[in-house]
Amino acid sequence: MRIRVAVNGYGTIGKRVADAVNRQSDMTLVGVAKTRPSFEARRAVEKGYRLYVTGGGSRDEFEAAGLPVAGGLDDLLRDADIVVDAAPDKVGAENRAIYARAGKPVIFQGGEKANVAEASFNALGNYDACRGKRSLRVVSCNTTGLARAAAVFRARWGVEHWEVTLVRRASDPAETKRGPINGILPTFQLPSHHGPDVQTIFPGLPIATTAVVVPTTLMHVHVNHLRLERAPSGPAEVLDALRATPRFHLFARWEHVDGTPQVMEYARDRGIGHNDMMENVVWEDGLRLEGRDLYFFQAIHQESIVVPENIDAIRAVFDAAKDGPASIAQTDRALGLPPPRAA
Ligand code: NAD
Fold first, then answer.
1. Superfamily of domain 141-300
2. pTM score, whole prediction
3. Are 136 and 179 in contact (CB under 8 A)?
4. What would the CATH number be for the domain defined by 3-139+307-335?
């Protein structure tokens, strides 16, 4: 049986999740719901996706733009087994009653509070605990990146203490109304909310986060210092462990990837998804081990890192894969992401 998936909210995340669903052999994209006509609505129609009107939008407005409409959100939900809510921050919580009325399970995004769903989700982190739940929240881009790394470090060496500074992108590339365009903005919530958010996946993880926002649209960068419980034999052991984990991409020194511009240039050359980089990016040169103290940078492509996680969350709801690693492998194969290298 193929899982019939609806996507409500067709912006940065929604359009990527819709394309990712469309590539899975065990899922069918029933349609996507948008509030108003736009180039993205036009692309959805050009791709053959059924378009539905949502969030108080007007069917007439779509039809005046020459975009055929298959119905409203209720029609979309009726024909779906599950809905992925990719509406703006906090709007998912408002949509919750609609999904409950329709009796459909739902995947929310990280812009919602944790209590919007039965559990927060990360595929490497807590797939098993999320099997069979009726509502899941795929944690935010930064939290997803940290949770993936936490899954590796906790399992291999244990985490005694972890401090992270998140250098956050100011806006997504298509956003025209956010900033700063000149300045570095400290986040005056100390520690920042990201640490507690990672703890929704790994309760009790000793992680403390701080954040600054900088004028870039390309990616976030995490500056990490961990004290591990047990010392790895050397940096090579850590790098091998990351290489052997799905959804990590390592750059070697000889690749001359100085920073996020080259990472995204690589992603454009590779051409997966919307020229996306769905993996945690780690520089081999940017990792140092001193006994139990591990320092490393990782870059997170905010627009796409949560996309494969949404697919795995759908499978977790229906308990439709043998286990987390099986779902991850299936998702990544369908998306064209390279498999991890054996350690
Ligand atoms: P977005 O603004 O790009 O897209 C949201 C879409 O939802 C828009 O097309 C908007 O018109 C539509 N919408 C508005 N009201 C709606 C309603 N009532 N019902 C349905 N759709 C409605 O936002 P986004 O960046 O895709 O973010 C979506 C969610 O994903 C948020 O929770 C966000 O925090 C989370 N997220 C975003 C990023 C990122 O960097 N963009 C990364 C990870 C998670």
1. Dihydrodipicolinate Reductase; domain 2 (3.30.360.10)
2. 0.98
3. no
4. 3.40.50.720
